[in-house]
Design goal:
The complex is a heterodimer of chains A (796) and B (167). Chain A is of the alpha+beta class and 796 residues long. In chain A, 28% of the residues lie in helices and 23% in strands. In chain A, a hairpin with a 5-residue loop joins β19 and β20 (502-506). In chain A, α18 (677-697) crosses α19 (749-765). With 167 residues, chain B is an alpha+beta fold. Chain B contains five helices and five strands. Chain B has helices at 23-30, 87-94, 104-116, 124-130, 142-155; strands spanning 3-8, 11-16, 49-52, 55-58, 71-73. The N and C termini of chain B lie far apart (56 Å). The chains are: A alpha+beta (796), B alpha+beta (167). Chains A and B meet through α1 and α18 of A and α2, α3, α4 and α5 of B.
Chain lengths: 796, 167
């Protein structure tokens, strides 16, 4: 019988393996776990943005029903717990290292933002823990709070950390200021823009959760947690906070309900439940409610910038000068310092041949939740700045905005292309992604649509953004030289079982990306086994040898490459076994999708014949080869990868209300080789939704006293289905030149390219009004003020 | 403590609850039906949607006691005993309408109720408006809308199986 199996390898839209469990309520998320004897924790958090703790009275709370233990900052200090570490060190212009104040797991003597954890209560039930937390009396002495960049840097601002002058974490720069200043002095025209990148709350739908479990017989600790990188959490928590050998700590990140960056970081609650489980002798579970998530998950963005282009008389960019202030929040989250520096300023060449660039970035402590990488991380901020400035420049230079971009594109034959801000792009074709996007979005036909909308009383606008990003993070030696305290390779193990089924162990973590399918497709493609026979194991430090996790669109480019390398080792060993079995020389053995063949003959062995021989080595080259068929590879990327493309947004504005409706959105992205087109489309659509959310709806607001005003989903506007149009997604591929798959990454492009396209469309729709720039989110209230002529007047 | 008796996915249960116990807590913690999720606590996200006597209900804002005597269906109760998926589940898979899967149970339960309550059929725009009680952070909704449009054809008997998504 000739069984035809559908092609499941690279390029096939294989339906996802993981969906069967998710669609039937059989997902295994952290809060779904219940350990025998489990107790529940509630974290008491600061209601003040900034206050001294004069005393904590737990006597009444301790006597409440069901309470097993209450621990405060004094207890964790006395126990010698370390603070939460920071994984990246930036040096200021003058060579001094950044300010790196302690970040205790429970606030000690001082609270620095609303939501700063003050005590952990462990009780029999969650309700009992919460009731007891409410009975704790904390004597606070409120201090002046500085939630904004302006307040924190004001003369006489109260220092948030002892010894941190002016609340400045670092004052960093890149590029040659004198050269750039000279280019500006000699320029034909210059264009400047002040702009804000609004603070966002990632809001993965699954709130963070953690379960700690101490085994008093072995002294081993297990932490189940909502993490994108369990091995990193094990390292940071064991070595820095709990001060345990890593061999005594296991971290499991089971199914995780979205991350978008916010679940990369090591959070206090992870260490607290792990430590507390030993104190009370029972497993301890903590699950955030949504308001806790708002005031304890790392936030994103929050930049204020001034950006300037210098142009020659032909509209060619001569120089870019940028000054940015970045809000770090009250403490340094795990990777916070690298976001506004090496993930931001190094991207400021964008897709353009800007010959010289100078950027300076001041990172500032404020009385707010720590800020760290959120989908795109630094790259959306760079893209927004460039693409808004480009539109403003086009208008002021009187050059068509598409033409101005084309004129400055890095040409397709200029790769590898060295930018003036450290990165070397390996491949790209920006004219082609632009042309394709203009065609799909019917840019040429827009004026007719504008006229048609005008007849209905609507203001219609179109906006474009041409962008690139750096992901596939990252070459270890390079990031090490820039201040990273970690290597950013990935690890993959391919285990071929005796019967030919395959287990893949990977350090990448899937929390929506569909790795269980995509990675299986890689194996299917290379080793010729059906996707159904390939199991992907991730998220458990006891099963997977090591790993660096999933963020920065790195899972395929780095994690997938590690698997490819491990499969090469499997094939190399398999060839030696096949040569023995077929009495041929190793050099004569060819391998293609599951079959070993003696070149030029019909003598073959299937992969399963080799695996049987490897595990039942009766006829086996035992003197020269170990039994078994399992290989592990570490892959350290040679460069970042550089996805890029073009996004076009079309909006209609209601003249009466100012409400912006996004009516069309087209994305044409170059993400390198596409493994599963269905999943790539889904990733881009989701990223675009988050970018549109930033542009039109979302903003995290603190009042002047540091109270978190947008502290729930009733106050913080998440995009809903009717806020979005159908999003058209296409790809145009140039291959990455330095990884074995040619992949670039698709997780972040949507969130990076889309916000400026939307704002450019809004500004375009308001072309008849005196408006040069609109800050995100472009709410109806802001637009109404512009339409009604009161824009800016209130401030004047 | 008071007792509540209810039928969940066709099975009768009696449980002791506190007055403040929420239906979602009863489902997740007492009955260990962890497919129903809690995403926001303020009735905004819909991750907790189940059917109570045939209506979609946010179980995070329903007291367990209010469900006394009710018939409740959760995501675990949708597939047939032989494992055949409900057309809505099948459509979500075919159209890649889920990524992390966390909002999915509530989204599927809301979508089924939306389709059942609109036998005349819904346009894509009406589906978008009908999903106002459910948040998804991963997909951008595009594929969810497509999946629901495909599932309604099967649920209303206009097609015998879920239309294949365009490749």
């Amino acid at each position: 019988m000739n069984v035809v199996t559908p092609f499941e390898g690279i390029g096939a839209s294989v339906r996802r393996k993981e969906d069967f469990r998710f669609l039937q309520g059989k997902g295994n998320y952290t809060d779904d776990l219940n350990r025998p004897g489990q107790t529940h924790a509630w974290i008491l958090r600061s209601p003040h943005a900034h206050a001294k703790i004069r005393g904590v009275d737990i006597a009444a709370a301790k006597a409440m029903p069901g309470v097993h233990g209450i621990f405060t900052g004094a207890d964790t200090e006395a126990a010698g717990l370390g603070g939460l570490p920071c994984g990246w060190q930036i040096h200021s212009k003058d060579g001094t290292p950044m300010a790196e104040p302690p970040h205790p797991v429970l606030a000690f003597e001082r609270v620095r933002h609303v939501g700063d954890p003050v005590a952990i209560v462990v009780a029999e039930t969650r309700s009992q823990a919460r009731d007891a937390a409410e009975a704790i009396i904390v004597d606070y002495e409120p201090l002046p709070a500085a939630p904004s960049l302006e307040q924190a840097q004001a003369a006489g601002a109260t220092p948030i950390h002892e010894g941190v002058a002016g609340n400045i974490c670092y004052d960093w720069h890149i590029g040659d200021k004198a050269v750039v200043d000279a280019a500006f002095a000699a320029a034909h025209r210059t264009v400047a823009l002040d702009l804000v990148n609004n603070r966002l709350v990632p809001n993965a739908m699954e709130p963070r959760a953690a379960v700690g479990e101490f085994d008093r017989f072995t002294g081993d600790y297990t932490l189940y947690t909502t993490s994108q990188n369990p091995h990193v959490i094990r390292l940071l928590m064991a070595a820095n906070v709990l001060k345990l050998p890593e061999s005594k700590v296991r971290v499991v990140a089971p199914d995780v309900g979205g991350g978008f960056g916010s679940k990369i970081y090591h959070y206090a609650e992870e260490a607290l439940v792990t430590w507390a489980s030993a104190q009370v002798g029972r497993p301890v579970k903590w699950t955030a409610d949504r308001t806790e998530a708002f005031m304890s998950d790392a936030h994103g963005r929050d930049h204020i910038s001034r950006a300037e282009f210098a142009f020659d008389k032909d509209g060619r960019i001569l120089a870019l000068r940028v000054a940015t202030q970045a809000n770090m929040g009250a403490y340094l989250s795990t990777f916070a310092p690298c976001v506004p520096t090496y993930l931001y300023a190094t991207l400021l060449a964008g897709v353009y041949t800007t010959p010289v660039i100078y950027a300076e970035v001041k990172a500032v402590f404020t009385n707010t939740v720590p800020v760290d990488a959120y989908r795109g991380a630094g790259r959306p901020e760079a893209t927004y700045l460039l693409e808004r400035l480009m539109d403003v420049a086009a208008r002021e230079l009187g050059i068509d905005r598409v033409e101005l971009r084309r004129r400055n594109f890095i040409p397709a034959d200029a790769f590898p292309y060295q930018t003036p801000v450290a990165l070397q792009y390996d491949s790209g074709d920006y004219q082609s992604t632009l042309n394709e996007c203009l065609r799909v979005a019917d840019w040429a036909g827009f004026e007719a649509r504008r006229a048609e909308a005008a007849a209905r009383g609507k203001l219609r606008g179109i906006g474009i953004s041409t962008y690139l990003e750096a992901c596939g993070i990252a070459p270890s030696a390079v990031v090490g030289s820039l201040g990273a305290r970690a290597g950013l390779y990935e690890v993959g193990t391919i285990r071929v079982h005796p019967t030919g089924s395959i287990t893949v162990l990977t350090g990448s973590h899937s929390h929506g990306q569909g790795h269980e399918t995509t990675f299986a497709q890689l194996v299917s493609d290379k080793l010729g086994v059906p996707v159904a026979q390939v199991d992907i194991v991730h998220g458990d430090t006891a099963k997977v040898p090591f790993g660096m996790g999933t963020y920065g669109s790195r899972s395929l480019a780095v994690g997938g490459s590690a698997m490819m390398k491990a499969m090469d080792k499997i094939i190399a060993k398999g060839k030696r076994i096949a040569a023995h079995l077929m009495e041929a020389s190793v050099e004569d053995i060819e391998f293609d999708r599951g079959t070993f063949r003696v070149a030029g003959t019909d003598r073959t062995k299937a992969l399963v014949d080799i695996s049987v021989a490897a595990y039942v080595p009766h006829n086996y080259p035992i003197e020269e080869l170990e039994p078994g068929l399992e290989e592990t590879a570490f892959y350290d990327p040679k460069n970042f990868t550089y996805p890029g493309g073009c996004h076009i947004a079309e909006v209609e504005i209601d003249r009466e209300t100012g409400k912006v409706d996004l009516v069309n959105f087209t994305a044409v992205d170059d993400v390198g080789r596409v493994i599963n087109p269905m999943i790539v489309e889904g990733q881009v659509q989701g990223g675009v939704a988050q970018g549109v959310g930033q542009a039109l709806l979302e903003s995290c607001i603190y009042d002047a006293d540091g109270q978190l005003v947008s502290g729930s989903m009733m106050d913080y506007t998440m995009p809903r289905a009717d806020d979005l149009p159908p999003v058209g997604v296409a790809t145009h591929t140039t291959l990455c030149t330095h990884n074995p798959l040619g992949v670039k990454g698709c997780g972040e492009v949507g969130a990076i390219g889309s916000p400026p396209a939307v704002i450019n469309a809004v500004v375009d729709a308001l072309r008849d009004f005196d408006v040069r720039h609109i800050e995100m989110p472009a709410t109806a209230a802001k637009i109404w003020q512009i339409i009604n002529g009161s824009h800016g007047k209130a401030a004047a | 403590m008071p007792h509540v008796t209810l039928t969940v996915n066709g099975k009768s249960h009696t449980a002791e609850v506190e007055g403040r116990t929420l239906l979602v807590e009863l489902l997740r913690e007492t009955l260990r039906l962890t497919g129903t999720h809690i995403g926001c606590d303020t009735s905004q996200c819909g991750a907790c949607v189940v059917h109570v006597n045939g209506d979609s209900v946010k179980s995070c804002t329903t007291l367990a006691l209010a469900a006394d005597g009710a018939s409740v269906t959760t995501i675990e109760g949708l597939a047939a005993a032989d494992g055949t998926l409900h057309p809505m589940q099948e459509a979500f898979r075919e159209y890649h309408a889920l990524q992390c899967g966390f909002c999915t149970p509530g989204m599927v339960m809301s979508a089924i109720d939306l389709v059942q309550k609109n036998p005349q059929g819904l346009s894509e725009q009406e589906i978008r408006e009908g999903l106002e009680g459910n948040l998804c952070r991963c997909t951008g909704y595009h594929n969810i809308v497509k999946a629901i449009a495909a599932a309604q054809d099967v649920m209303h008997g206009k097609r015998s199986e879920i239309a294949r998504a365009a490749e």
